[in-house]
Design a protein that fits this description.
Elements lengths: L10 H8 L6 E9 L4 E10 L5 E11 L4 E8 L3 E9 L6 E10 L5 E11 L2 E8 L4 E10 L2 E10 L4 E12 L3 E8 L4 E9 L4 E10 L7 E12 L2 E8 L3 E11 L2 E10 L9 E9 L1
Parallel strand pairs: 1-19
Antiparallel strand pairs: 1-2, 2-3, 3-4, 4-5, 5-6, 6-7, 7-8, 8-9, 9-10, 10-11, 11-12, 12-13, 13-14, 14-15, 15-16, 16-17, 17-18, 18-19
């Protein structure tokens, strides 16, 4: 079993709770790919409350023969980024990345290198920030469905460990359960995901902050139901009374529309709710 990287250990349940919920915004995404393999992606979003608009243009070229991928982007904050990846060139499962960014309207700069190494039961990453000296490393190991992972961040300027996270889990054919200890084991999360049937997915997660015991345990439930091959609905609710609903419809090949709303069921008569929509074109 190829394990996921540390950030994606809880991806099935996280996607169930966050994907297809464009709360408070109108979003547009257009993806195209040329005959020679260059892909272009344009993202735009308008905040419904403030009217502020943010957008980004991204291009990506993949040379599959040599394992080389080049990505660049430019957004409305005048931030230009570039990234080069080389995969499986020097060793099987080894990927090297070099990325940099520059804000054209300020002196903000970033330069990062990343090393990814993946084998049958191992996924390890090291990320080095050269301009703001810091190192982040994480590792995931798996065996017979069992998963274990850890993440560590170290600030070279202060000589201090700034982040320690760990995860234990088990993944079956149609379910996954994970337990995470974040923020130096001061915050714990228990999450469960299951594909109940071919058309139904369900998930739950509970979070307890050891530093804020008065807050108690926050809990959430979520589900997804596939109506047909072109449409599905999602719903989620937490113990604060907030309920999220979304509907996603494939209008035609390459065109998808998502409509969503977040409702505070404890204040139904107040202006405390958020609506949103996202339209995606892909060719």
């Amino acid at each position: 079993m190829l394990p996921p990287n540390y950030s994606d250990i809880c991806k099935p349940v996280n996607d169930l709770f966050s994907k297809d919920y464009p709360f408070g915004a109108l979003k547009l995404e257009v993806k195209t790919t040329t005959a020679n393999g260059v892909s272009f992606t344009v993202n735009g979003a308008q905040d419904i409350k403030s009217g502020a608009i943010i957008s980004e243009l991204k291009t990506k070229y993949a040379d599959k023969v040599n394992g080389l991928t080049y990505t660049e982007s430019w957004n409305t904050a005048n931030l230009v980024t570039g990234q080069v990846e080389i995969a499986n060139k020097f060793a099987k499962g080894l990927k090297l990345e070099l990325s940099g960014s520059s804000a054209l309207s300020s002196t903000k700069r970033a330069l990062r290198t990343k090393i990814n190494y993946q084998q049958d039961n191992l996924f390890a990453r090291v990320n080095v920030d050269a301009l703001n000296p810091a190192v982040t490393a994480d590792v995931t190991i798996s065996r017979d469905g069992a998963l274990a992972g850890a993440e560590l961040a170290y600030d070279l300027n202060s000589g201090a460990v700034t982040k320690t996270n760990s995860t234990l889990g088990f993944a079956g054919p149609d379910y996954m359960i994970t337990m995470q200890g974040n923020n130096s084991l001061n915050m714990f999360q228990l999450a469960f995901y299951q594909r109940v049937t071919a058309n139904v997915e369900a998930g739950a997660r509970a979070v307890y902050d050891y530093k804020n015991p008065e807050g108690g345990v926050s809990a959430e439930l979520a589900t997804k139901y596939v109506l047909d091959k072109d449409a599905y609905v999602k719903a989620k609710v937490d113990n604060s009374g907030r309920m999220g609903l979304s509907f996603t419809q494939k209008l035609r090949p390459g065109v998808k529309l998502s409509l969503a709303g977040l409702f505070d069921t404890t204040r139904l008569q107040e202006n405390a709710h958020k609506m949103g929509a996202a339209l995606t074109f892909e060719a």
